[in-house]
Specification:
There is one protein chain. With 170 residues, the protein is of the alpha/beta class. 37% of the residues are buried. It is globular, with a radius of gyration of 15 Å.
């Protein structure tokens, strides 16, 4: 199985660690400890590719949210095949930061896949529509709503990233 590097980018507290732990361990942990530097996870994705029958191991780099734009000057970014750029649906400023992180990622690694992930959809009241900043809605990039707490769209988000990596390399 081939391996590819995937970065989790976003401000502190948006749920990067919770998303990867939900995927890897299948649960949500209520005790929170900020990531310092970077944590690595190996995640086999067996339903990737255009037909859903390819496999890829993602080496997920869960990065410290305090890096901001300086992350692109660190070795952490080198060799990344894709990034999930994550914001908190209830903290508008984190959603606005996603655009800046996407621009930095594209400058550092042109042509690589990235996805916008708006996490914590479980905090929306019944019938409440997520308020997405206009600068995220340019039509070129979709925004995926996830919940690390409930697991909503978490696995699909990583499968979609793996599929995009395989498509780009195929």
């Amino acid at each position: 199985m081939i391996s590819r590097k995937l970065l989790l980018l976003g401000e502190i507290g948006v749920g990067k660690t919770s998303l990867i732990r939900r995927l890897v361990h299948g649960r949500f942990e209520t005790e929170y400890k900020s990531t310092f530097g970077v944590e690595l996870y190996r995640v086999p994705i067996t339903r990737a590719g255009p037909d859903g029958d390819d496999a890829l191991e993602l080496i997920v780099w869960d990065t410290d949210g305090n890096f901001g734009q300086s992350i692109f000057r660190h070795v952490y970014v080198k060799g990344a095949s894709a990034a999930l750029i994550i914001g908190d649906l209830k903290r508008r400023s984190t959603l606005e930061t996603m655009v800046e992180l996407a621009e930095g990622f594209q400058d550092a690694l042109p042509g690589r896949h990235f996805s916008f992930i708006a996490n914590k959809s479980d905090l929306l009241a019944d019938g409440e529509v997520a308020e997405i900043p206009a600068k995220l809605q340019d039509g070129r990039q979709s925004i995926l709503l996830t919940s690390a707490k409930t697991g909503a769209n978490v696995e699909d988000t990583f499968i979609q990233a793996a599929t995009s990596i395989l498509r780009r390399e195929g």
